[in-house]
Design goal:
The complex is a heterodimer. Chain A is mostly helical. Helix content of chain A is 73%, strand content 0%. In chain A, helix 4 crosses helix 13 (278-305), helix 5 (102-138) packs antiparallel against helix 6 and helix 5 (102-138) packs parallel to helix 9. Helix content of chain B is 35%, strand content 22%. By secondary structure, chain B is an alpha/beta fold. Chain B contains 13 helices and 13 strands. Classes of the chains: A mainly alpha, B alpha/beta. At the A-B interface, helix 1, helix 2, helix 10 and helix 11 of A face helix 2, helix 3 and helix 6 of B.
Amino acid sequence: MTLLDAGSGWQATGPAGMPEPPGSDEIAAGSAAARPLREAWRMFAGNPLALVGLAILAGIVVMTIIGPYLYPVDPFDIVGAPLTPPGEGGLLFGSDYLGRDMLAGIIHGGRASLTVGGFAAIITMAIGISIGALAGFYGGWADRVLMRVTEFFQVLPPLLLAMVLVTLFSPTLTTITLSIGVVSWTNVARLTRAEFLKIRSLDYVLAGRAVGARDRRLIWRVILPNALPPLVVAAALSVGVAILFESGLSFLGLGDPNVMSWGMMIGQNKQVMLDAWWPTTIPGAAIFAAVLSISLIGDGLNDALNPRLRRR
Amino acid sequence: MSAAPLLQIEHLNVGFDTAMGAIMVVRDLDLVLEEGETLCIVGESGSGKSMTALAIMGLVPEPLRVVGGGSIKLSGEELVGASHRRLRQIRGKRISMVFQEPMSSLNPVFSVGEQIAETLRLHEGLGRRDARAAAIEMLQAVGIPAPERRVDDYPHQMSGGMRQRVMIAMALACRPAILIADEPTTALDVTVQAQIMDLLKDVQRRFGTAILLITHDIGIVAEAADRVIVLYAGRRVEEGSAEEVLRRPAHPYTAALVACAPQQLLLGGERRILPEIPGIVPSLLRMPPGCAFAPRCARATAECHAKAPPLLELSAGRASACWLATELGR
């Protein structure tokens, strides 16, 4: 009750940019404003750090999508002398230890990093939510079996397991993405399970049963939508984690050798780190910017979707 | 013995086994609900009244279950042991339920219209558009003003009374034969309580729904019930037409409940201290050997403490489980 009152209280004291005449009878506008998603968006848009994160990420995404057309240089082509400093020889970011264009590497590498990050996060969420939802909803032996499986994956060091999987199945973008997804779903499963355990005993789930809803419907239509806020945050953060993971694998030389990625750039140039700063620092900064922006977005989503914070 | 009654419960036992023996929440309950009538189940917290309701819905929560060969028949069809699939078809379609807490019984992330429509789509196979129209119609039927606008409201935009109206609309959407209302007004303001009770009576008249009303409030019994069953510690202690039970209680527990109702004081005009029933409902683990109410009963005799009284039929449809029943009921 207090939670719901808090929601409307927040609306009343809400953003100053939306002055509503006190006597306004605009019920239609009122109900539109109260739609949970719009409320959350308004909350998110009022958070400057989250907007900065969104702007950075949008910039990176746009760069990786249209960059290769605006700057059609193959990142594997040798275009100049090795270790040309940034700005010289017509190379904005300089060249690496083989004389390859760093700017082309950043643009193309971003494609690989973001693609792997995005799809690995989708796999992570799909496995984690399915297992957590079944365990939390049914409880009993289903819960025990699924949680033991989760713990089994949890005790294996994720990077080692991913390395084993990638070497077993030869490193391509697909196997790397799958491996990252397979090693990082455990936290999502535990989070989902906890939410389901909490929500499944609430009155509206019983009310759902009382109108004859079947389990599938209760899981996906009744409980999951109410469990989404923390899961959306987890999804955003898992994109960042997956990007770091891919960079780590590439750094160790386990990336797809045919696809340029930020991690690979750092890994291959680490030998010249003491002679030239840019071949490692620039891709490092790119990874930093991408992961930071995603973390900022995740924090912003957390604040926007958390009803307890909405009260303030 | 003509047609089967709408709802007939025989020897219903709900309980679970523990290391300290079986704990019974509902014991040997019989009841009959006929079409279009209102039957009240009255009792304190822990008397087993809500469990009875959930047992009818087939929703008794773990680890409780229906034990000991009891039977719940809906128009002659046995529900105890029926398949999950069959029970799902019945819930919301033939038997619906309204819960105590309108604040938490609606899903906060869907509009009330979507939630009513969902029931209709589930049971009647209506399309999105038809279901929405039917939802608006139901909102209108339960007295929500401007239903075509409120249909898109989310639960948190409504007051408690409004939400309980929505719950009733949801429960009645498929025109069930039976509506189980579990303390439907307990969480509401007094003024709203009266409105909701009026609404229940109104929809009962219009749709011919039988209502199984679960309450602890003797005032609601007086206002709404045709017949009443009084539960104490999971057992029936008294049963009969509401008028007779309230006027001449044949069990000391019922008599005490009636005396505790504040309405009695209002009618009396003078100010006096509201009487209370001393003591608490006995623990289900430590039931006294005799009558469960004996430790709190002012009139208990040695016999009451030693031996549990059977439910004695006093007249047609009128029964009491008290050794002093015949004396009291006169």
